[in-house]
């Protein structure tokens, strides 16, 4: 369960009210799109979820944690329960596909035996078993994003948060990545996908939360395309 209670975020350096008094509940196992135009506050919302930003006021509750109250040293452990995927993949260029995914396990203290068992399994699940020895620079954008998804999945998170995961990908590949996230969701993982791509939102009938200027302007189940969310 993810809950925002009257959350606001003001960025002092830019004098921006990025999030304005948002209350939101996402149940375990849900698939939710967060949509809205550039600057609406979507990324800020995800950063509040992973304790990368602290709210100016209000409460953020995830997996029983009061995220807004986490101390710096508590954050790494909290983040193990959450997998992140970004628009720019953020892979380590000097590590192979296998090593990128293994590294995510090693930094949380997995044994080499656990790594040897789990990494091939996760790479297979994203269709990349044959690319284990490749470096990110040798892969297409879609393949790199699959590696990023594998890395996000490898520690069995209860939540996957993808911030514009298809922003650098063409439409066909974008749909494949989205389909993969939908499959992951079917297995019980909560999935949150941030996007401003309405085509993509329309390919699945899922809940859509629309942000505009830091506020939720609509929140509908199985809605697909929402007009207000994409006003510019
Ligand atoms: N780290 C930051 N410092 C200052 N201002 C920021 C920061 N991050 C975002 N903002 C501002 O907050 C607003 C919302 O940004 P963001 O959450 O990135 O929106 P989105 O992801 O929907 O494009 C924008 O006006 C942006 O300039
Ligand atoms: Mg953003």
Key phrases:
232 residues; alpha/beta; 10 strands; binds adenosine-5'-diphosphate; binds magnesium ion; 7 helices; four-stranded antiparallel beta sheet
Quickly describe the structure.
By secondary structure, this protein is of the alpha/beta class. It contains 7 helices and 10 strands.
Describe the structure.
The protein has 232 residues and is an alpha/beta fold. 31% of the residues lie in helices and 27% in strands. The protein contains seven helices and ten strands. The strands form two sheets. It has a six-stranded mixed β-sheet with strand order 6-7-8-3-9-10, with helices on both faces. The protein has a four-stranded antiparallel β-sheet with strand order 2-1-4-5, covered by helices on one side. The protein is globular, with a radius of gyration of 17 Å. Magnesium ion binds next to helix 1.
């Amino acid at each position: 369960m993810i809950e925002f209670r009257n959350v606001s975020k003001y960025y002092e350096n830019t004098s921006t009210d990025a999030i304005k008094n948002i209350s939101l509940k996402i149940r375990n196992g849900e698939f939710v799109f967060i949509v809205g135009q550039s600057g609406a506050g979507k990324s800020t919302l995800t950063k509040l979820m992973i304790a990368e930003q602290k709210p100016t006021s209000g409460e953020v509750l995830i997996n029983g944690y009061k995220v807004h109250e986490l101390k710096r040293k508590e954050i790494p452990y909290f983040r193990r329960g959450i997998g992140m995927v970004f628009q720019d993949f953020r892979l380590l260029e000097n590590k192979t596909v296998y090593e990128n995914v293994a590294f995510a396990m090693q930094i949380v203290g997995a044994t080499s035996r656990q790594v040897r068992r789990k990494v091939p399994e996760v790479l297979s699940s994203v269709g990349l078993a044959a690319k284990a020895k490749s470096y990110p620079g040798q892969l297409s954008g879609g393949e790199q994003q699959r590696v990023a998804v594998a890395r996000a999945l490898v520690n069995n998170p209860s939540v996957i948060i993808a911030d514009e995961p298809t922003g650098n990908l063409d439409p066909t590949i974008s749909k494949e990545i989205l389909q993969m996230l939908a499959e992951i969701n079917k297995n019980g993982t909560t999935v949150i996908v941030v996007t401003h791509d309405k085509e993509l939102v329309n390919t699945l009938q899922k809940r859509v939360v629309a942000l505009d200027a830091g506020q939720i302007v609509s929140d509908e189940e199985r809605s697909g395309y929402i007009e207000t969310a994409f006003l510019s």
